[in-house]
Amino acid sequence: MSPFCITWTELTNGSNMRLIHNMSSIAEYSPVESSVPNRVIKMAVIGGSGVGKTALVVRFLTRRFIGDYERNAGNLYSREVQVDAEQVTIQVQDTPGVEMTDNGINLPDHVTCSIKWADAVVLVYSVTDRRSFDLIEQLHQQVVLTGGANMPPVILLANKADLLHLRQVDAQQGPMLAETLGCSFYEVSASEDYSQVHKAFHRLCCQLAKQPAPASNSTSAATEKRRSPLIPRPKSPNMQDLKRRFKQALSAKVRTVTSV
């Protein structure tokens, strides 16, 4: 097992008990009493509309797959984890879909703000949507321009790998593009394979965890930056609503099987 082991932590409502999944077991965990705030690792997920960004984020953080989502409004998802015995808070910023226009890409302000905010960027396209693949190079250029000398690490995810009959992007094209951009590449299926989704985000978390924690003055500056009116506070989703929709999806599947 990698020395940078990530342990997933979820606080149950109305209880101090936390459930942990460390890739091999589920056990009861006693919360650590500490006045020192957790280190925060921030990731932004960016890509075209309908490529499965929200499904990937929820799959990574909860192991669950929900196939039907409302239009992406730019939610912030957060979970506490342990990386190499250090308690860390992972924040993943989902972003609205980027559209291609005759004049180039239509990049919402929220996406630009998310790039400035993030410690790392995950670029996503769907293998069933050629236009989403064609967006990637321009999105990467935006990350370079926005990040400047402090450009965040980037990984490239090709989603919906299970939909072979709908594939519009050849399997070789993703790795070739990633090599050109100088970033890691993963072809995944949010609906069919949790392990590959976890692997991609896990390696990015480990890469960020190896970097020195920001100094206190840098943390203060970052806090002020996040409070700036130019960078709106990301919205936090209602996790109970996510669980409700997950149960509804399961019920629909059960009804379908029963009818057959």
What does the secondary structure layout of this molecule look like, with pairings?
Blueprint: E1 6-11, E2 18-21, E3 26-29, E4 39-47, H1 53-62, E5 76-83, E6 86-94, E7 99-101, E8 104-106, H2 109-117, E9 120-126, H3 130-147, E10 154-159, H4 173-181, E11 184-187, H5 194-210, H6 216-227, H7 239-259
Parallel strand pairs: 4-6, 4-9, 9-10, 10-11
Antiparallel strand pairs: 1-2, 1-5, 2-3, 5-6, 7-8
What is the molecular shape?
globular
Task: Say how many strands there are.
Answer: 11
Poorly predicted runs are 1-33, 216-235, 256-260
User: What is the H/E string?
Assistant: EEEEHEEEEHEHEHEHHH
Separation, N- and C-terminal Cα atoms: 44 Å
User: Could you name the CATH topology of one domain?
Assistant: Rossmann fold
Tell me what portion of residues adopts beta-strand conformation. Answer: 15-25%
Protein name: small monomeric GTPase
Pfam families: Ras
EC number: 3.6.5.2
Family: Belongs to the small GTPase superfamily. Ras family.
Explain what this protein looks like in three dimensions:
The protein has a domain at 39-210: 3-Layer(aba) Sandwich (Rossmann fold), CATH 3.40.50. It has a 9-stranded mixed sheet with strand order 3-2-1-5-6-4-9-10-11, sandwiched between helices. Strands 7-8 form a two-stranded antiparallel ribbon. With 260 residues, the chain is an alpha/beta fold. The protein has helices spanning 53-62, 109-117, 130-147, 173-181, 194-210, 216-227, 239-259; strands spanning 6-11, 18-21, 26-29, 39-47, 76-83, 86-94, 99-101, 104-106, 120-126, 154-159, 184-187. The longest helix is centred in the last third of the chain and has 21 residues, at 239-259. The model is unreliable at 1-33, 216-235 and 256-260 (pLDDT under 50). Strand 7 and strand 8 (104-106) form a beta hairpin. The chain contains 7 helices and 11 strands.
